[in-house]
Amino acid sequence: MRQEDKRRIGEELEPGDRPKAPGRLALLQRFVNTHNHDFPPEWDRLGDARTANAWLAKAGFGGIDTDEDARRLRAFREDLRALIVGRAATFPPAGMIVVVAADGHTRLEPAEDGVDGVIATVLGVLHEAQLSGDWARMKACRKCEYAFYDRSKNRSATWCSMSICGNRTKNRAYYRRQRP
């Protein structure tokens, strides 16, 4: 895969050409995938306030002010990733309000702007996904921990892409078996 294509992973491209998660859950998926641990740290879309603001604007969020805000977003992202993987995670308190739409449906919206507003928005999406049952299909690759939406019938997908991480894993197992 070309380097310019790798930089688009998580935004325009998904490993293995998977479709993104449905509805607003795609926003949470994109947020978690702002950095893939297989890529260099300088490719982190939340690496500092400048790069974070560029990603946040593209995703439809307001901006943040400092590199400390970017650090908080990265820590929150890794807590979300841990939750998807099944590890323990701790989340900051989030100020939210309940908004009632014209059709009578409710949703949680952030009560603040900035970094706290981003965190509240993403936690609101998490809450919606848990209520709808979509959260059970949100998974992380066993190898690289890239977040993906499992559309398989039996919900058994384990890798972001069979041709990338699945192939690496199976090749390593094969070579281990071949060694005396």
From TrEMBL:
Q: Where are the residues of the annotated region Disordered?
A: 1-21
Task: Spell out the Gene3D superfamilies in the cross-references.
Answer: Jann2411-like domain
The Basic and acidic residues compositionally biased stretches are 1-20
Matching Pfam families, A to Z? ABATE, zf-CGNR
Please report the stretch or stretches of sequence annotated as the Zinc finger CGNR domain.
137-178
Q: Record's InterPro entries? A: ABATE, ABATE_dom_sf, Znf_CGNR
Q: Which residues cross the membrane?
A: none
In terms of domain of life, where is this protein from? Answer: Bacteria
Please identify the protein, giving its name as recorded.
Putative stress-induced transcription regulator
Which organism's genome codes for this protein? Answer: Solirubrobacter pauli
Q: Which lineage is the organism of this entry classified under, starting from the top rank? A: Bacteria, Bacillati, Actinomycetota, Thermoleophilia, Solirubrobacterales
